[in-house]
Amino acid sequence: MRVAIVTESFLPQVNGVSNTVRHVVDELVDARHEVLVVAPGQGPAHYEGTPVVRVRSVGMPGYRSFPIGLPDAAVGHSLDRFGPDLVHLASPIALGVVGLRAARRLRIPTVAVYQTDIAGFARQYGLRADLVVDRWVGRLHRRVDRTLVPSSASMDQLAALGVRDLHLWRRGIALDLFDPSRRSRELHQEWTDGSRLAVGYVGRLAHEKQVHRLAVLAGLPGVQLVVVGDGPAREELRRQLPGAVFTGMLRGAELAAAYASLDVFVHTGDSETFCQTVQEAQASGVPVVAPAAGGPLDLVEPGRTGLLFDPADLGSLRDCVAKLLVAPGLRHDLADRARTAVAGRTWQRVVSELVDVHYRAVLDGAAAAA
Asked: What is the pLDDT of residue 117?
């Protein structure tokens, strides 16, 4: 099968969309499918042997390092040359529309993966365009052959916009990487001096992630805050969280060791369509505290595989973490049950579902309509 992936973000950007596309490409290539990636902004022209077509972009207001794809004839030309059987639109909003138009012109079936709450994202940057963005997103997804959503909350959100052909498709985990065996006593000692518990966040340091909410935990006795990641809000967060350890961007084994060396993982933002870092922390054997909103509602069973806090009441975040600090048995039980729950969620399994169920459905539908 020949698959063209038109994505709103790809390497060297590090975020949920880029990481998901990377894993999808890896698994498709391993299964001997041919893949083309079309992405905005500057970057390498190949990824592990897969060609990457780079198109014109502009920096997003308030986040200039994040490129937004612009209308570019290179999209249509690259699809013409590649001759895909299917076009996969990864988190489409701007460049995805261009990819959709090109696919419709070529009469190629499309699968769109909804991954970013654009309206929520815009609100965090002071852009009051909720209704306009929602109309745009709804119209786009109503025009594709099939939309995949990562969570029940996302399904409800798009259904309210009139999108009908919705199917749940979750994310995989690199289970060979994220594992409790990665815990480093030396790293934990470096963070805490051996006298405190490491309570941490992993992810992009951007306003929509609301990492500043960790400030409510700073006064808890015996807590050392750890912030893993980088992004445009880093310096502001350093001022807001003066006692926190900031590790910067980590990848691979270093990232896995950071996850596993935490005593409690906290996700702070409430606009997540899925929240990959929650299940990576669960795979790493770390108890999770996350907002009772969006994707985490599907990933955390309260009191069994983690704790959920009310994002409208940051006192509840403090209470959840305080409860775990004094209950090592509860921390162990939550982490153990969560790790069991995510066992088997490999990227190979997830991408096999993508191909065998979702790609196949739209290809069969196109063949029947021909």
From this structure: 79
